[in-house]
Amino acid sequence: MSVDVIIPVYKPDAKFDRLLAMLVAQSVKPSKILILNTEVFPEYATERVASHIKKVMKKQPASQAADVSIEVHSIKKEEFDHGGTRAYGAGLSDAEFMIFMTQDAIPKDKYLIEELLKPFKDEQVAVSYGRQLAGENAGEIESYTRVFNYPETSRKKTKKDLEQLGIKTYFCSDVCAAYRKTSYEAVGGFVTKAIFNEDMIIASRFIKAGMAVYYAADAMVYHSHTYTYWQQFTRNFDLAVSQADHKDIFEEVSSESEGMKLVKQTIVHLAKKKRYFLIIDLILQSGFKYMGYFLGKRYKTLPKSMVLKCSMNKAYFS
Q: Which residues of 3-37 are buried (b: 16+ CB within 10 A; e: fewer)?
């Protein structure tokens, strides 16, 4: 069983160093780690990143790093695309399984890859994605959001779950997800132009093709963010743009009801913990999220100058 790990990076930091160290220490080692470096001057930046990776690897026990090949490939920043860049990475891999990760996802232990691969004993499973735990600096709201979206119990999702789970049937995250290469190729791979949600788009294709998406709760990474209100706005604007551009997937199942469910349950959680002042913060966050989402769904009717101000990924509209 061969497996490659594919990681798009932009100005990698200490979290990326920890990620690399944990990957080479895994109980099931990747054959290759493919780094997709996306910076303004890719040739110079890639040389710098490759040099930095060598220094990180020299600090690891020789027995751990010896059998893992690390390659660094260049992509211009303006050419980065959530779907297209990962599709490029998939084309560099000839492994049976491909694990996509982000540079700030830190494996909880040495069993991440092992746990991500276990579900593939079931031939119906096309992709398995891991559980995201809040980092040590995450606030109460972000921590609860992680618990809401990534529960303790694993679950296999197929077409028959659409009526009960709705949009959650397609939920999958390339923060930490493993793909069966043959299944990936069978549905045509990642959509090559995607501002967001490339993982949910391909997951929907798997489901519609009679395959399964598996949530592997025992495959754990630390991954969370502290966003400003404006960052919440722009992130949800782009999320809605992806839904507007892929109506065939997202209009058949509602995602807004899931968002309201999260807000209501978070309010109950904060009230139980007597963190009443955080409810105001949650309401403000939710307001900015909804405004971003509302405008993103209607982005084709907005002036381009306004669209560019609202988006995190301005190159998508070039």
A: bbbbbbbbebeebbbbbbbbbbbbebbbbbbbbbb
**Residue matched to tokens 């609860």:** 144
Phi-psi label, residue 102: left if phi above 0, alpha if psi -120 to 50, beta otherwise? beta
Tell whether pTM > 0.70. yes
281-to-23, 118, 189, 285, 287 alpha-carbon distances in Å: 36, 40, 39, 6, 10
Tokens 């405004």, residue? 291
Tokens of 75: 């992509």
Which band of pLDDT confidence, cut at 50, 70 and 90, is reported for residue 76?
Answer: confident
Q: Are 311 and 254 in contact (CB under 8 A)?
A: no
The residues near 229 (Cβ < 8 Å, ≥ 6 apart) are 284, 285, 288
Retrieve residue 165's tokens: 């789970």
d(CA 116, CA 25): 15
Residue found by looking up tokens 């493993």 in the block? 178
